[in-house]
Amino acid sequence: MNHDHYPVEYITDILRDVKTIALVGASNNEVRPSFFVLNYLLEKGYQVFPINPGLAGKEISGQLVYASLADVPVAIDMVDIFRNSEAALQITQEALALNVLPKVIWLQLGVRNDEAAALAEAHGLKVVMDRCPKMEFGKISGEWAWVGGNSGIISSKRQVVNANGRMQSLGIAPRN
Length: 176
Known about the structure:
The protein is of the alpha/beta class. The protein has a single domain (8-134), classed as NAD(P)-binding Rossmann-like Domain (Rossmann fold). The chain is built from six helices and nine strands, in the order H-E-H-E-E-E-E-H-E-H-E-H-H-E-E. Helix 3 (85-96) links the parallel strand 5 (78-81) and strand 6. Helix 3 (85-96) packs parallel to helix 4. The radius of gyration is 16 Å and the shape is globular.
């Protein structure tokens, strides 16, 4: 996989197929990107498990915070890494030690670790680096254009209303 460019279909398939997301590096600080990404993903219907050892046992946006990936009580479809590039390899190794492997390792904007990507892909996982699922969802769904962004996608598909009564489009299925 070329980690400098991801086909729209690749990102769309990930965002459509995953249901559970472990957000490693979650923050309860309302001005931190991990806080608003967590809330956005919840709003889109994903089940999000915040991971932060310093906040374990507390809640962020009504979600119980876990100390580690291994503490999450359900299978994780996607591990979203909100940590630095150096930490990505260790987190990927932790994900690969789970009883049920995730489907996706996603490294946030500015986070890139080619060794972690190669390791995950060698175990059959999809990998996305240096991207934000909130931004990618917005580009694919058409929301990005609402704030003046150019998604680079042209479509004649009609928008649909999601489970929360908000508009979205381009086949990112509403989640219940």
